[in-house]
């Protein structure tokens, strides 16, 4: 048996009726859909490092381990650690869990790290990294003994079957916002963007239409084709002078390409991220300074990450057909271990919580079914180390086309919900709608998990609710009480 056949057997190609071409295409699709994190995560986390607690404002440089670094250097260090943390987590997902899911530092979780923990609560970024590290260790321990699997299997059935559709609407909403098709509006919060006034909206809609038509015709790689052609079109329109720089191209990238040249861009990355590691070590020494604050931060990171990851795993697994008849993911502890290891390692080198990405749905839709898809994603992240600045040249609106297409596809999950049963209708309905309206998978899960035992009891079917499901509901209520108390300033540190 040759190496190719051995590898195919290891990943179970025959079992999942797939092949190298399909898995590779799926991996490229997932990577393109989530590559924005290489740009966005450093932009968000650098704000935590550049925040001056004494002055109460962001600075243009920061001192780390006795050396001063400017904002550009910090962003580049964070881009490198974002890639490295993703690679480690993805390798565990590919080789241990054998699932086609991509992982990276989580959106929302990085913003929580920066703006809630560091800026609002006043926790030093070094200590926040230590909290993420402890959260990761706890996750590894809970996953190893099967506790995380047990908790996830406690989710009510209507919640499990509604998660996919909820994430679908969430993806649609995020994608349309980035494409400027949905924009902010004072009276109604959101409204339809003006395509005649917005080049981004006009080009995005053209790219989306092309992608949807290619998908409808069954063209393999339709999402990749849509992303690449839309990005190239934005650059061409900019280079020929139809639109101004930084409109259809990422801010600053046009000037870098035209003034410094592409080779100069590729050679400008600072790969030395050891200052962030020593910042993490410094954070470990701060734990005893205020242990109560530290425990609260660990608890909050733990709670949000746990349910975000659980919701994402269930949602993307539903699209892939991995769930059993009870809506559970067999051997769920294996993919959970991937995010636990990624989170622990990522904190040590300087980034926030690592989690499974909902953008994995794009690769799954292209046919990815095994860990080889994830292995391809990891390989592309590794290659991205060589071209970190070039990744920044892909406009976000182009990558978000994938979210809209996949969001539409994921709506098929509503067909599995029994809408004639009040317990299913209310629980599933809240799960689906709360996710996009609060831009949080965890909040959508909370709405479903809290409402299910209450509705079941109101129907006289309280015996159908287990003690574990009541405990989950009460835990969510307690979490929100603490969260809102901190947000309202009722709890001050």
UniProtKB/TrEMBL annotation:
Q: Where in the cell is it found?
A: Cell membrane
> Which Gene Ontology molecular function entries are recorded, alphabetically?
purine nucleobase transmembrane transporter activity
Q: Name one GO cellular component term.
A: plasma membrane
Keyword entries, A-Z: Cell membrane, Membrane, Transmembrane, Transmembrane helix, Transport
Keyword Transferase among UniProt keywords: no
Main localisation, per the record?
membrane
Q: Which Pfam families match?
A: Xan_ur_permease
Q: Look up and give the membrane topology term.
A: Multi-pass membrane protein
Which family is it part of? Belongs to the nucleobase:cation symporter-2 (NCS2) (TC 2.A.40) family. Azg-like subfamily.
Q: What is this protein called?
A: NCS2 family permease
Native organism taxonomy: Archaea, Methanobacteriati, Methanobacteriota, Stenosarchaea group, Halobacteria
């Amino acid at each position: 048996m040759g190496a190719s056949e051995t590898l195919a057997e290891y990943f179970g190609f025959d079992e999942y009726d797939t092949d190298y071409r399909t898995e590779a295409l799926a991996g490229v699709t997932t990577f393109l859909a989530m590559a924005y994190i290489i740009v966005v995560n450093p932009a968000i986390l650098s704000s935590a490092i550049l925040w001056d607690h004494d002055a109460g404002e962001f600075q243009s440089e920061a001192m780390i381990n006795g050396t001063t670094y400017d904002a550009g250097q910090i962003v580049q260090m964070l881009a490198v650690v974002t890639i490295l943390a993703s690679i480690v987590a993805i390798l565990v997902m590919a080789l241990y869990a054998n699932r086609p899911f991509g992982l990276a530092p989580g959106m929302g979780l990085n913003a929580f790290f920066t703006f809630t923990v560091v800026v609002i609560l006043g926790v030093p970024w070094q200590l926040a990294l230590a909290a993420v590290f402890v959260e990761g260790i706890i996750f590894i321990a809970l996953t190893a003994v099967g506790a995380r699997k047990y908790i996830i299997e406690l989710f009510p059935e209507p919640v499990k079957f509604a998660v996919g559709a909820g994430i679908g609407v969430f993806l649609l909403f995020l994608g349309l916002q980035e494409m400027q098709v949905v924009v902010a509006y004072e009276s109604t919060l959101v409204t339809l963007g003006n395509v005649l006034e917005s080049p981004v909206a006009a080009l995005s809609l053209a790219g989306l239409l092309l992608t949807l038509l290619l998908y409808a015709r069954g063209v393999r790689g339709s999402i990749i084709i849509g992303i690449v052609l839309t990005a190239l079109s934005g650059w061409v329109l900019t280079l020929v002078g139809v639109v101004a720089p930084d409109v259809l191209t990422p801010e600053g990238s046009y000037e870098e390409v035209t003034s410094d040249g592409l080779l100069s861009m590729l050679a400008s990355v600072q790969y030395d991220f050891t200052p962030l590691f020593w910042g993490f070590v410094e954070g470990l020494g701060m734990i005893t300074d205020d242990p109560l604050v530290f425990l609260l931060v660990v608890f909050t990171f733990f709670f949000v990450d746990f349910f975000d990851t659980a919701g994402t795993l269930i949602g993307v697994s539903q699209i892939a057909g991995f769930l059993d008849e009870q809506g559970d993911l067999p051997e769920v502890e294996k993919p959970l271990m991937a995010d636990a290891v990624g989170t622990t390692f990522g904190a040590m080198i300087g980034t926030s919580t690592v989690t499974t990405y909902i953008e994995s749905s794009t690769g799954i839709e292209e046919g990815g079914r095994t860990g080889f898809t994830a292995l391809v994603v990891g390989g592309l992240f590794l290659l991205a180390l060589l071209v970190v600045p070039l990744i920044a040249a892909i406009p976000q609106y182009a990558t978000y086309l994938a979210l809209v297409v996949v969001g539409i596809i994921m709506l098929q999950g509503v067909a599995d919900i029994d809408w004639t049963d009040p317990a299913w209708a209310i629980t599933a309905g809240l799960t689906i709608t709360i996710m996009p309206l609060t831009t949080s998978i965890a909040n959508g899960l909370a709405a479903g998990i809290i409402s299910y035992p209450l509705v079941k009891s109101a129907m006289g079917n309280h015996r159908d609710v287990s003690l574990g499901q009541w405990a989950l509901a009460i835990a969510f209520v307690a979490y929100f009480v603490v969260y809102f108390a901190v947000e309202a300033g009722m709890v001050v540190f």
